[in-house]
Amino acid sequence: MIARPFYLAAVRRALDRSPICALLGPRQCGKTTLARTLMKTPNGHYFDLESPKDLLRLQNPELALGELVGLVILDEIQIRPDLFPVLRVLADRADFPARFLILGSASPDLIQHASESLAGRVEFVDLHGFDLVETGLGSIDRLWLRGGFPRSFLAGDDADSVAWREGFVRTFLERDLPQFGIRVAAPAMRRFWTMLAHSHGQLWNGSELGRAMGLSDKTVKSYLDDLTRTYMVRQLQPWFENVGKRQIKSPKIYLRDSGLLHHLLSLGTSKELAGHPKVGASWEGFAMEQILRISRQHDAYFWATQGGAELDLLLFRQGRRIGFEFKYSEKPSITRSMRVALDDLKLDVLHIVCPGSVTAKLDARIEVHGLQTIEEFSHDVL
To answer: Which of 131, 157, 169, 303 has the highest local Cβ count within 10 Å?
Structure first.
């Protein structure tokens, strides 16, 4: 079992501050395992809302939950949105006899009742698959190829990992999306998801994808938003700066889990990945996700102009502007585009992230960091 101390501490802090903590993330990312770790404390109660037995226990939810003391865990809360008003009533009790940890497989805007009924009473914690610090720096190639979903990463071999990811994709499309109220035919959504995989790391072009699928721009944008709200896709938004240049306004699209990206591209081994045209884009998305997860950064942007200047990632931290370029090269060099981004965006520092463990200073404000140095990098730089 791989320890996840950051998320355990985050949930405990949230429960100390608020009567309800919502632990959200994609299916099979480890939410239940994390919750059961917390259950080891005294007075723990667990309800799986996919279990007929537990649903029977909740026929009268206010009575059943109101009698409990300690930590109460409700798994897959999106199945029972009628519980949110009950939780609001229980959270408003003066003596706080119980704290509620609710687990969900969709973002807060998809679970609308969480933000509406529980406003001021709930704190959200997002859980994702394993990151590089959790798995260890020596596992970078396996994590990149298989992705961070625990059962995919921990599978006995690459073939078992591929089989698990295929089962995940089918279940997600055929069961999970309808459960979230998303009524899209599974074959259509899989085709769209696969097309996104081939566009990984590129600007969103709804017109092109719509024409390819015979659908309207509005329809394919709704598909994109559905995959975003279920944690499958990241829409990296553009940053606008008053620099007197025409700037890109469309988001860049990334599949958040590199293992699912490779599966949709039919890449099952490191050798197949190394020879694929999307290997550079895959590395960019993987490295970017590691930076965002380990730095715990939520507000992230890219920047690009019509003239060709661009920056892969822009973060703001403690009044500083920090830029990132991701290069699938052992010896990255300074480019004209980097110089433009440094000057136009007034960056405090620009980090070039590449494979390996190299660390070098190329300029007063430009540094190179191998992804294997990320622990030192995330603490010393971000």
So the answer is: 303
